[in-house]
Amino acid sequence: xxxxxxxxxxxxQLFDQLVAWRRDFHRHPExxxxxxxxxxxxxxxxxxxxxxxxxxxxxxxxxxxxxxDTLPPDAPTVLVRFDMDAxxxxxxxxxxxxxxxxxxMHACGHDGHTAIGMGVAQLLNQHRNQLxxxxxxxxxxxxxxxxxxxxxxxxGVLAPPTPQASFGIHLWSRxxxxxxxxQPGPLMAGADRVDLVVNGVGGHGAMPHETVDAVVVASQIxxxxxxxxxxxxDPTTPTVITVGSFHAGTICNVIAARAELxxxxxxxxxxxxxxxxxxxxxVAEGVCAAYGATCELIFSPAVLPTIxxxxxAALMRKVGTQLVGASQIATIPPAMVGExxxxxxxxxxxxxxxxxxxxxxxxxxxxxxxxxxxxxxxMLPTAVALLASTAATYxxxxxxx
Length: 401
Fold this sequence. Notes:
Elements: H1 3-13, H2 15-27, H3 36-48, E1 53-57, E2 61-66, E3 77-83, H4 110-126, E4 134-140, H5 148-154, E5 165-176, E6 180-181, E7 185-188, E8 190-199, E9 203-204, H6 214-232, E10 240-248, E11 254-255, E12 258-267, H7 270-291, E13 294-303, E14 306-308, H8 310-324, E15 329-330, H9 342-347, E16 351-358, H10 380-396
Parallel strand pairs: 3-4, 3-5, 5-16, 6-15
Antiparallel strand pairs: 1-2, 2-4, 6-16, 7-14, 8-12, 8-13, 9-11, 10-12
Helix pairs in contact: 1-10, 2-4, 4-10, 6-7, 8-10
């Protein structure tokens, strides 16, 4: 039996334990950089396997390396990543394992990802002497827009043994059970933030001619920004500018001297992102000049585009086909959501895949980040086998490096 099929068999044997781990994490969700209990459970499991564990990487991250008892120092290393954080959402599900923390919920499946990581660690460790290199297991905090991957990288998670490739998965509640989305190129967008402060001249609501109305100026900027995507960006290039927050004024009869806008911008290319920021700044300054106002634009880079390498996707697709069959391997239009697995992929090219987690015989699960989010737990063994097999196959085959 090949190692891939061995992992598949053993992952299914772990099913009850995977579900128990997942439901425990679901009951006890923790926000980004606060995953103290979660990290403790993960670290204790890894230590129980006999692994040397490093905690507190990127504040609450956990790292361990699985390797054969004897291995050359120059043997290759592959990174496998699992995110652990929950979201500030009040759960509305009536489930025996619903969140016990008010206002916090695993509404994106990271409870499943963490359980999957514990299963991957267990299977790889059981077969460590069959590995042709090292597997660096990375349990990451704060994926939900707080920069957990960057924090771990800043604190040395990519230091020797330095991984040459990285792999990961995200369970997906809107895809049929065990459908695998594995594709080269962009999978998810870069997601960055733009903040704008407009400074006008405040005054009495009955005497607008003596003022520069920051509300009017900022409103014109919001509308003008919407033409950037339609008139400055190639129409075949997916791009989004969203003004999600507009704050100005205090009372109905006072003209506001200041307005504040907060925006999310998304694209699949760094050059396009830079073009968006350049045009947003130019448009804002131009509108302000026309009205006699001034402005300050602050660009905050956040999440890079998630881009899979050709070789990484081909390898993962080959493994996935062995596990679920070619008919279960799919591709999708790249999604505009962001994912900081991109930080690892940019430095150690590999592949990030989606694993379908919706029961095809039942109603479609709620979308991610919904207070009624849940998923079909039968996908857990498939994800464990996919990641364990991908890591082992990468290390065994020099042509993938």
